[in-house]
Each structure stands twice: as C-alpha cells, then as structure tokens.
Design goal:
The protein has 289 residues and is mainly alpha-helical. The protein has 7 helices and 10 strands. The structure holds zinc ion (ZN) (2 copies). One zinc ion (ZN) binds next to strand 7. One zinc ion is lined by residues 119, 121-122, 124, 132, 138-139.
C-alpha cells in the first residue's frame, strides 16, 4: 500500500536545513562548508593556471588550438560548478521530521499491530530504503552517502546532479592534464624563459601543482563516478552495498533504474539545469512494511 506525501502534510514548511527564504536546502556543517570552499578554490586555481599560463599569454598568437581548448575548458568548468551547486542546494530526499505521531500513523492507514520503522533520532516514519544521516540530522530516502565535498547527502532527489558533478570534474581533470602535458612539451622543446610569462621556477611550480591537482581530482572522481554508476545499475545504494543488505525491494531493471535517476534518455541527462522528467512513480511515496 502506498501513501503520497501530500496526504501526510503536517501543514507549514519545515525550515530545518533550509536557506534563501526556504527555496534551497542548506546543511549547516562547518566541515562541509570548508570542503566546498576548498573545492571552489581548487577550480579557481585551475582556471588561473590554464587561462593565465597555458592558453591566454599575450605572446601567444590567437590560435585555433587555444580557442577550442578554452571553449572546452570553460564549458566543463561551468557545468561542473552548476552541478556542484545543484547537488549542494537540492533536498536529497529528506523525510518530514516528527511525523511518527499517533494521528499521522492512523491517517496513513496503519492498522493496530502493523509493523513499521520509526527513526528515534528525527521521530519520522522511515520509508523503505531511507537511512538517517547524522550530519543532515534527517532521514534521507535512498541515501547513498553523505559527501562533505558537496556538503550534502547524495540521495534520491539529487543523485543525478552528483553523478554529473563527478563526470564533469573527471572530464575537466583529463583535459587539464592534457593541456599541462602540451605546455611541458613546449617548454622542454623550446626555452623555459620564453615559453611562459612567469619565471621558470614559478612556471614549474604552477604546472606541477596543477598536475597533482588534476591527478588527485581525476582519480577520485573517476572512482566515484564508476561506483555511482555501478550502484545505479544494480539498484543498490552505497549504504546498502556497505551493509550488505538483502534486497527487500523489487529490484528494477538496469534501464528502469537509470531512468529513475536521470529520466527518459535525452540530452537533458547531461544538463544540471533540468530535473529528471520521469522519476519512478513510487519514489515519492511511503511504503508500508
Ligand atoms: Zn532519522
Ligand atoms: Zn547527510
């Protein structure tokens, strides 16, 4: 038996983890906020070195190589940034707090003696596959994990944006490593004093740091992206895999599982601006247990 949220509304909007006049979801966790600022600073550093040292120095003639690579780099950086913002500011699928009251339970149609899960920490009736996150202090539907780099849980409602974030950061890392290699090759072939507007030691330091950043970000996000895709294809969240939970839910086919995260296939799959159009019908419903 399924019950929609609308029929369970307790009236009034819960302002917990909310900001921007209740429009956005914001987790007030200092560690997460520091990680988010570090992520933005690292993207800005890559912007500075790639644009200022590799692609735009004044001595470099306007070239097709620079223009194409500038377009690719800026497009990836923009899409990664928007995906990051949307992952961070989207409600990941929080279950209303304090809805495990006698009236609510009756309203939901539970019969005397019928079993259901109640979260003792946020006093909510736990839908199937929801887990409590101690950072968000809420139960999150289909919680995969809490990621400090996006200062939010990855759950049913924002997994698409998180996957896109890892995809675009992985892509920009590979692209950056390619650009750094071409710059190194140019400097080694020519003269270190003329291949950059900065002094040779500064140039080497900036390029080495960018290589290190590209490798770290690249390896980390590729592993993350693959584990997310694996979890989606197998219809099993990171937590469920970690806890080796037996699937109590009817496992969806791979196609249905992908569609429940990204919607029907279209170019919108790659856009962090569009919400998945056809969420799986049951995803916003409670399950009786
Ligand atoms: Zn809870
Ligand atoms: Zn969380």
């Amino acid at each position: 038996m399924h019950y929609s949220y609308s029929s369970l509304s307790t009236g009034g909007v819960d302002q917990h983890n909310r900001c921007l006049g209740n429009r956005a979801w914001c987790v007030k966790d200092i560690c997460g906020i520091v990680c988010v600022i570090m992520t933005w600073l690292l993207i800005l550093f890559a912007e500075f070195v790639v644009c200022g040292l590799i692609l735009l120095p004044s001595y470099r003639n306007y070239s097709l190589f620079s223009s194409i690579n500038m377009f690719i780099f800026q497009a990836l950086a923009f899409l990664a940034f928007v995906s990051h913002l949307r992952t961070m500011l989207s409600d990941p699928g929080a279950v209303p707090r304090g809805n495990a009251t006698k009236e609510m339970i009756e309203q939901m149609g539970y019969r005397e003696g019928q079993m259901f899960y109640k979260c003792p920490k946020c006093c909510s009736i736990k839908p199937d596959r929801a887990h409590h996150c101690s950072v968000c202090q809420r139960c999150i539907r289909k919680m995969d994990h809490h990621c400090p780099w996006v200062n939010n849980c990855v759950g049913e409602n924002n997994q698409k944006y998180f996957v896109l974030f890892t995809f675009y950061i992985a892509s920009i890392s590979v692209h950056t490593l390619f650009l750094v290699m071409t710059q190194f090759a140019e400097c080694v072939r020519g003269d270190w004093r003329t291949c950059s507007t900065y002094s040779p030691p500064t140039t080497i330091f900036l390029l080495l740091f960018l290589t290190f950043e590209g490798l770290m970000f690249g390896i980390f996000t590729i592993i993350m992206l693959l584990s997310q895709l694996n979890a989606i294809l197998n219809d099993q969240t990171g937590i469920e895999q970690l806890k080796k939970e037996e699937a109590r839910w009817a496992k969806k086919s791979r196609l249905k599982s992908i569609q429940s995260v990204f919607g029907r296939f279209s170019l919108a799959w790659f856009s962090p601006f569009t919400e998945p159009s056809c969420r799986h019908k049951f995803s916003t419903h409670f399950y009786s247990v």
